[in-house]
């Protein structure tokens, strides 16, 4: 009874293993264009590096070549066609697996010849009795070798059109950044990135809070303060923005964007102050995209503030 | 200083040359004594051996002094020496000044000479308990090797005076990571430790004294070298992974292969001279493989230092190529001639049972030699083709994967089945019954992994690993079967199987490279990195640009990492400082590739590499296994019993 049970378990496990292998071998899964492109890139040598594939190299030429590979994969060309395309332009040297023609053939034949020689040596040694024994083992080994040879994945087939997976859409990084901020509340750069992401997502009120936090962390950094003020203006709190900017200018009088923004903000209430601020801005940053308009505005007798200057 | 250094090198040369002659004379005196009964021969032989030992010691002392001299110059930054001016700088920390010795050709050859002198001195001491003749041959061979490398060290002397012509400085890569202090010395020790098995093999072939003690000596030295070499190679792979920033650890670069070749043959030696592996024509195989290992080491030095192969590891092209090639040939010829002449004498025409450890070991040797030859073809044939025909061909990972995968699979299968086979004869039935538990464990694991990951080869390797682990557990828990050799072997084989799983699993990773603004995100599968800030600082020797990135998994925040780019102004070289977050099942690998000030774009490479930490662990397991199997038994427990030459190969107790 126990014997039968043991055998049943063994047979069940055997069947389980065979089924598993079968499903793995037949499961081709969707091949994404990225995967194919990467596989092809791994088989091409970076011409300007020492033995690196273009998939691994960070050289400029490799980058360009990678793009070409991706483009051709998307056009539905097979790996072989792409490899041949590169070999034509860069020479056979570009192929990390040498071609099966010319001298490259030698490189493929040599390992096969070595294995063949080993088999012959094993068979010839020791007479007929030995030969009989080895034949079975070698047949087994040969079957395995051929099986592996055939099953080792080869980048060859073109990517079927329509099966190409497009890259995932833009990731929502807000939750990650939110966690990151909780994790490292003292990191001003992180707060700024978080605030930027909030702004992009249209959550202006939250963005203002994040900017405020960044400003508290970097009270003397005019760029941070400027972005804080900018967000305040966008969320309809120009008064608060003014306070932030005034504080900025007390620390550093030569921050051009702050001068521009504050000038625009105080213009309605205090045209003289606005004109002084804007003049200072033009002097500091004559190359600024808004400089010409500001100059025109100043010369035009302080009429209506051009809309482009304001955020 | 130049004069003193050159004198020391000449002293190494002279002492080794004298040593070589004296050791040869000692061996000869003993041979005469054996031929005809004469009491004077023995005394003379012993005296000569004593002189030989002194000479070997003198060569070691001179080599130590020479290295010390260069080190003092390096640490005090004494730029009177051209070499110091080239490799060292006043801004370099002391640690990297010391390691600067082996960051360029001249110094590395001096370190090589020192390690060789140390190994020679240890080997002639170790051989004190063998016959005067064998010891003489060993001493003579090692002294001649030292002579050869003393000449090479003189040709590329680090003691030349500064002539103002400072050639290219070594890459700052060699002054950027602590592993630089460990990886090359470990490799050198592993490489040169193999000089002793070579000498012992030649000694055995010359004197025909190839008994159990001979095998034990071969095994001892090969095992220690194997452990050092394994550690050196894996450390090199880890360094390449952690520092270079390309995300891989093995590129099938010619120089990497050159270090793998002697490792493969040394592995074969261990499976030929181990107490239970001495089957068939083991003496011939042991002598052949042990000799080949060191010839391959010498070939590796030639490949690395001649400019013959194109490699990132190669030293600058030097005129040493021909000299090193002469050494390769000089070591190859006597070995090949001796093995060829003794082949009938040591050959074996017996036909072991198919289901036996004996057959498994023969297959294992053959496979390891085949793998070695295939790697050798891939490493040298392209260069040979270029030199002879002008044809430029590349041989890279795809070629190695295709040609080696079948052989590797057979090796892995043999590795887990072999130890279960009966030493002499057996039947399929009894063998299958003994290993049914590991087999079922392996099949279960295979099926499960295949179903979950849909990867045939990962499943097969996982099945083999489970088989090995189950076997280890069985052997270790069975009082009758448990002994150091069996347990050590299973631990080492488990290590190899785990390494196979790690390598195959590593292939399932994902990589993305993208340029994004601050606040932008790069995605690889479920893993994301979001740039949250940039940072720059000047560290004197280098200026560093760092990117702060938030690492996320799905919608979860994980941590903030800071990959760097390091710019070395003097060398005008940019190096990556990747950040790796190692987890149990995967590594997240973030490299900063570029920061474009103008557009504000940051180029990041995000790679998710599965099971990388398993690979480093597997190396530790392999080394542990080798150490368990090779740990010396206390002499009291097992008195050395030199068996006569006709003694059949000692057979394990477990038949």
Automatic annotation (TrEMBL), chain A:
It comes from Citricoccus zhacaiensis. Coiled coil: none annotated. Keywords: Cytochrome c-type biogenesis, Heme, Iron, Membrane, Metal-binding, Signal, Transmembrane, Transmembrane helix. Belongs to the CcmH/CycL/Ccl2/NrfF family. The chain crosses the membrane at residues 105-124, 136-152. Residues 33-125 form the CcmH/CycL/Ccl2/NrfF N-terminal domain. This is Cytochrome c-type biogenesis protein. Possible subunit of a heme lyase.
TrEMBL record, chain B:
It is found in: Cell inner membrane. The keyword Transmembrane helix applies. Belongs to the CcmF/CycK/Ccl1/NrfE/CcsA family. Required for the biogenesis of c-type cytochromes. Possible subunit of a heme lyase. The chain crosses the membrane at residues 55-74, 104-124, 136-156, 186-206, 218-240, 260-277, 284-308, 320-339, 367-387, 399-423, 435-453, 459-476, 488-508, 611-631. This is Cytochrome c biogenesis protein CcmF. It is a multi-pass membrane protein. It comes from the Bacteria. Keywords: Cell inner membrane, Cell membrane, Cytochrome c-type biogenesis, Membrane, Transmembrane, Transmembrane helix. It comes from Citricoccus zhacaiensis. Residues 326-629 form the Cytochrome c-type biogenesis protein CcmF C-terminal domain. Residues 102-306 form the Cytochrome c assembly protein domain. Residues 635-655 are annotated as: Disordered.
């Amino acid at each position: 009874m126990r014997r039968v049970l043991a055998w049943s378990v063994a047979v069940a496990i055997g069947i389980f293993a065979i089924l598993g292998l079968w499903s793995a071998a037949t499961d081709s899964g969707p091949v994404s264009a990225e995967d194919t492109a990467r596989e092809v890139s791994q088989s091409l040598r970076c011409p300007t590096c020492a033995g690196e594939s273009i998939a691994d190299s960070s050289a400029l030429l490799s980058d360009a070549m990678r793009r070409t590979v991706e483009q051709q994969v998307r056009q539905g060309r097979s790996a072989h066609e792409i490899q041949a395309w590169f070999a034509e332009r860069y020479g056979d040297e570009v192929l990390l697996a040498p071609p099966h023609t010319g001298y490259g053939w030698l490189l493929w034949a040599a390992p096969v010849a070595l294995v063949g020689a080993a088999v012959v040596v094993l068979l010839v040694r020791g007479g007929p009795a030995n030969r009989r024994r080895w034949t079975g083992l070698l047949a087994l080994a040969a079957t395995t070798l051929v099986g592996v040879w055939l099953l080792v994945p080869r980048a060859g087939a073109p990517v079927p059109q329509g099966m190409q997976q497009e890259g995932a859409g833009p990731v929502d990084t807000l939750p990650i950044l939110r966690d990151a901020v909780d994790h490292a509340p003292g990191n001003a750069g992180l707060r700024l990135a978080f605030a930027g992401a909030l702004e992009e997502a249209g959550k202006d009120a939250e963005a203002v809070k994040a900017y405020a936090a960044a400003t508290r962390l970097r009270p003397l950094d005019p760029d941070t303060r400027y972005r804080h003020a900018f967000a305040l203006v966008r969320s309809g709190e120009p008064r608060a923005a003014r306070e932030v900017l005034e504080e900025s200018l007390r620390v550093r009088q030569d921050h051009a964007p702050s001068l521009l923004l504050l000038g625009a903000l105080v213009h309605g209430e205090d045209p003289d102050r606005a004109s002084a601020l804007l003049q200072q801005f033009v002097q500091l940053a004559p190359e600024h995209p808004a400089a010409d308009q500001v100059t025109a505005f100043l010369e035009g007798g302080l009429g209506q503030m051009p809309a482009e200057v304001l955020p | 200083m130049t004069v003193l250094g050159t004198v020391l090198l000449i002293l190494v040369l002279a002492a080794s040359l004298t040593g070589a002659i004296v050791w040869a004379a000692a061996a000869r005196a003993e041979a005469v004594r054996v031929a005809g009964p004469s009491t004077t021969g023995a005394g003379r032989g012993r005296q000569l051996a004593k002189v030989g030992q002194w000479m070997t010691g003198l060569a070691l002392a001179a080599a130590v002094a020479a290295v010390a001299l260069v080190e003092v110059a390096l640490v005090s930054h004494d730029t009177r020496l051209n070499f110091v001016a080239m490799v060292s700088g006043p801004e370099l920390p002391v640690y990297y000044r010391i390691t600067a010795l082996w960051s360029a050709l001249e110094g590395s050859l001096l370190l090589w000479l020192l390690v060789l002198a140390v190994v020679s001195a240890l080997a002639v001491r170790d051989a004190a308990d063998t016959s005067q003749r064998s010891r003489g041959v060993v001493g003579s061979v090692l002294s001649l090797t030292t002579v050869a490398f003393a000449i090479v060290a003189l040709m590329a002397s680090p003691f030349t005076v500064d002539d103002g012509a400072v050639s290219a400085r070594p890459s700052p890569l060699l002054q950027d990571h602590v592993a630089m202090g460990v990886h090359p010395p470990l490799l050198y020790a592993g490489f040169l430790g193999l000089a002793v098995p070579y000498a012992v093999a030649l000694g055995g072939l010359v004197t025909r004294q190839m008994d159990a003690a001979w095998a034990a000596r071969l095994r001892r030295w090969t095992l220690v070298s194997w452990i050092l070499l394994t550690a050196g190679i894996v450390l090199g792979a880890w360094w390449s992974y952690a520092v270079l920033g390309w995300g891989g650890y093995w590129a099938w670069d010619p120089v990497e292969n050159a270090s793998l070749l002697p490792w493969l043959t040394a592995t074969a030696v261990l499976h030929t001279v181990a107490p239970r592996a001495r089957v068939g024509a083991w003496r011939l195989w042991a002598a052949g493989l042990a000799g080949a290992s060191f010839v391959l080491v010498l070939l590796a030095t030639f490949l690395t230092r001649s400019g013959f192969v194109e490699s990132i590891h190669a030293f600058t092209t030097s005129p040493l190529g021909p000299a090193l090639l002469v050494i390769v040939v000089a070591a190859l010829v006597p070995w090949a001639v001796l093995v060829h002449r003794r082949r009938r004498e040591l050959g074996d025409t017996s036909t072991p049972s198919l289901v036996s450890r004996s057959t498994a070991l023969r297959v294992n040797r053959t496979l390891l030699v085949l793998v070695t030859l295939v790697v050798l073809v891939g490493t040298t044939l392209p260069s040979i083709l270029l030199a002879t025909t002008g044809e430029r061909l590349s041989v890279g990972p795809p070629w190695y994967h295709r040609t080696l995968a079948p052989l590797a699979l057979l090796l892995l299968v043999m590795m887990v089945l072999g130890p279960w086979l009966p030493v002499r004869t057996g039947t399929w039935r009894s063998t299958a019954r003994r290993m049914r538990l590991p087999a079922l464990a392996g099949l279960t694991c295979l099926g499960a992994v295949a179903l979950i990951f849909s990867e045939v080869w990962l499943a097969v390797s996982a099945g083999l690993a489970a088989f090995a682990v189950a076997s280890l557990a069985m052997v270790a828990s069975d009082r009758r079967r448990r002994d150091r050799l069996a347990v050590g072997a299973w631990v080492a084989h488990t290590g190899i199987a785990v390494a196979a799983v790690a390598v195959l699993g590593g292939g399932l990773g994902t990589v993305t490279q993208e340029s994004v603004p601050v606040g932008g995100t790069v995605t690889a599968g479920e893993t994301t990195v979001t740039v949250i800030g940039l940072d720059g600082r000047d560290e004197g020797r280098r200026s560093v640009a760092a990117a702060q990135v938030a690492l996320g998994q799905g919608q979860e925040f994980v941590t903030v990492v800071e990959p760097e780019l390091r710019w070395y102004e003097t060398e005008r070289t940019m190096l990556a400082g990747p950040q790796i977050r190692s987890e149990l099942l995967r590594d997240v690998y973030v490299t900063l590739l570029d920061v474009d000030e103008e557009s504000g774009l940051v180029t990041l490479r995000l790679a998710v590499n599965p099971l990388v930490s398993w690979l480093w662990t597997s190396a530790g397991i392999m080394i542990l296994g080798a150490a368990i199997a090779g740990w010396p038994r206390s002499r009291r427990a097992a008195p050395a019993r030199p068996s006569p030459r006709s003694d059949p190969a000692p057979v394990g107790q477990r038949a």
